[in-house]
Write a structure and sequence with these properties.
Keywords: Repeat
Protein name: Pentatricopeptide repeat-containing protein
InterPro entries: PPR_At4g14850-like_plant, PPR_rpt, TPR-like_helical_dom_sf
Organism: Cynara cardunculus var. scolymus
GO molecular function: RNA binding
Largest sheet: none
């Protein structure tokens, strides 16, 4: 059987298509067989896993992404990852992701900043909830 090699743009588009169709295993297979990947390719697979409720796998792929030569997480990566850490109530890791992003990029913009505000808000309500349980 002959296979043809996908370039980054077409491969990333197929990964997005598979994710939107709920075919996560196909998107992972395609991701793993792609020779070249960029930040959009990585974001697609991380976001797809997160959307499919595979939060731990999404965060595992994020950790691999950080060690990939020439690949630097962007604001989309930050938003997806911090939201998933928040879902797991791993607030320290979420703040750590923001800190490492700020060191690498200098500042947060727009949606990334709003995502940080959501993390603080969720943490605030968790503390209020815990205090209410102790006092009640």
């Amino acid at each position: 059987m002959n296979y043809w090699e996908l370039d980054v743009i077409l491969g990333t588009s197929f990964i997005n298509m598979y994710v939107k169709c709920g075919r996560i295993q196909d998107s992972l297979f395609l991701f793993l067989t792609m020779k070249d990947k960029n930040v959009f390719t990585w974001n697609s697979i991380i976001k797809g896993l997160a959307m499919d409720k595979n939060v731990e796998k999404a965060l595992w792929w994020f950790s691999r992404m950080k060690h990939e030569k020439g690949i630097k997480p962007d604001e989309v990566t930050l938003i997806v990852v911090s939201t998933k850490y928040q879902t797991l109530r791993l607030f320290g890791r979420s703040f750590s992701a923001f800190g490492s992003f700020k060191r690498g990029h200098g500042s947060h913009k727009g949606d990334a900043f709003l995502s940080l505000v959501k993390v603080y808000g969720e943490l605030f309500w968790l503390v209020v909830e815990l205090m209410g349980t102790r006092n009640g």
